[in-house]
Amino acid sequence: MTRLLAALLLLLPVAARAEGMPQLDFSTPLTISQVVWGALIFIVLYILTSRVALPRVGSVLEERAAHIGRDLEVARVAKTEADTAVAELTRATAEAHAGAQAQIAQALETAKAAAAEQAAQINARLDSQIAAAEQRIGAARAAALGALGQVAAETAHAVVDRLTGGAVEGGVVDRAVAASLAQRRPSVA
Amino acid sequence: MAASGTIDALSQFKLHTVFGPIGASVNFTQANLFMVIAGVLTLALLWYGMRPRAMVPGRFQSAAEMAYQAVMSMCVDTIGPEGKKFFPFIFTLFFFILLGNLLGVWPYDFTFTSHIAVTLAMALFVIFLVTVVALRIHGLHFFSYFMPSGVPVALAPLLIPIEILSYLSRIISLSVRLFANMMAGHVMLDVFGAFVVMLGSAGLIGYFPAAFALAVNVALIGFEILVATLQAYVFAILTCIYLHDAVHLH
After folding, report:
1. How far is CA B238 from each of CA B100, B117, B132, B173, B235, rounded to the nearest angstrom?
2. Going by C-beta distance under 8 Å and a sequence separation of 6 or more, which residues neighbour residue B131?
3. pLDDT at residue number A189
4. Phi and psi dihedrals of B53, rounded to 5?
5. pLDDT at residue A6, as a whole number
6. A52-101: per-residue pLDDT in tens?
7. In the predicted model, what is the mean pLDDT of residues A6-34?
8. What is the distance in angstroms between the Cα of B178 and the nearest Cα belonging to chain A?
């Protein structure tokens, strides 16, 4: 295509000489007048473009750039705030966790101490009860052993009376019973 | 176009005045009319596109913003941070040429960039601007631009004329590139369009080649849209490069 154009361009001067290129026809004033008018039109266009039209575009573009910049700044601030909040939250969570752990440990400690104290109290009470009970048992046994001598003496009196018909004196029986009891006591106790 | 069997591909570039006697009295041509249309379209894109001033732009506003940012990045990337000062000029220049080129692809429209007088005037102004900028920033030191550092002094008589010539030839390359591209494209469109009419009227035998010529023209239209955009971009980016040289001296 370019070769075709080049060939045509080479032919142009020939054609121009033959028919006369209107572009090089300076016999008509229009060839020059179009340039003068063109210069005027271009100057007016330049003034309108540079003073009115382009600043309009430029202001919108600047506005947009400023708006985007502002939004980015706001987003950056928000992000910083969010980061701080997250850090605060993490710290607070950790703190609460540690506090709760301490409380749990303390409560456990208290409960253990209370339980130990209660157990000690119960043990003491039980011990005293056991001791009291043992004392009562001991007293009861002593009482029972005391009564045994009297019962043995009365039984011996009755048996001797029946056998002898009151011939034997009461003092003799009592002494015999006491001696017999004293002889047996160690094995009973 | 195909008057009396000959292909007249050049009459499409002929200038005439518009708006009747009023236009005729001030020599206001159809080229100038399309310059005004190109300017109005540029301003309309920016004005109506930016009317919503939306934070999230719609389609039209996006187009306006993309145009702004594309030219802005072209200026800043090519010239450097100083490019912002030249942004309104580059923007105007780029859209003036772009719409001039693109409007020309539309049938019956006139392509003012296909006139060497117009493109030459623009190129002259660009070189004038570049030189003024360079002189204002660097003063007389600007002339060291024509004598690259590290070159033996003995070569100066040879090198300086070459450098000056290459500097001045920017005017020619800038103007002829745009003019020739636009003109060549429109001549081709006209020639193949004339083929369609001539072959089509030649009877049954001509139908197939006429259809082929029409297909070529369809492809050419697409090619022309590419060229129109590309040449506007080339003109603008070369202006940026020259301004970079002016600001930074190499």
Report:
1. 18, 19, 17, 10, 5
2. B142, B246
3. 43
4. 45, 45
5. 58
6. 999 999 999 999 999 999 999 999 999 999 999 999 999 999 999 999 99
7. 71
8. 13
Q: How many angstroms separate the CA atoms of B243 and A57, rounded?
A: 24
Q: Is the pLDDT of residue A16 over 80?
A: no
Domain boundaries, chain A: 28-141
Q: Among A27, A48, A57, A70, pick the best mutation site for testing chain B contact (most B Cβ within 10 A).
A: A57
Candidates B195, B181, B213; CA nearest to B7 is B195
Point out the residue among A1, A50, A52 whose CB comes nearest to the CB of B223: A1
Domain, as residue range, for B212: 3-248
Cα B79 to chain centroid, rounded:
20
Residue type, A90: T
Residue A80 vs residues A91, B4, B108, B140: alpha-carbon distances, Å:
16, 84, 65, 57
Residue type, B14: K
Pairwise CA distance, residues A57 & A149, whole Å: 136
* pLDDT of amino acid A53: 93
Evaluate whether ipTM surpasses 0.85: yes
pLDDT tens, residue by residue, B148-166: 778 888 888 888 899 899 9
Domain tally, chain B: 1
Q: Nearest residue on chain A to B227, judged by CA atoms? A: A2
Assign B3 a pLDDT band (cuts: 50, 70, 90).
very low
CB burial of residue B229 (10 Å; 0-12, 13-18, 19+): middle
Residue with tokens 């700044």: A73
Tokens of A113: 């101490």
Asked if residue B119 has pLDDT above 50, the reply is yes
For residue A60, CA distances in Å to A57, A119, B49, B73, B94 come to 5, 86, 11, 17, 22
Q: Tokens 């070189």 belong to which residue?
A: B127
Which of B10, B89, B118 is the closest to A38 by Cβ?
Answer: B118
Q: How far is A44 from chain B (nearest CA, A)?
A: 9
The answer to whether the CB atoms of A38 and B32 lie below 8 A apart is yes
Q: How confident is the model at residue A181 (pLDDT cuts 50, 70, 90)?
A: confident
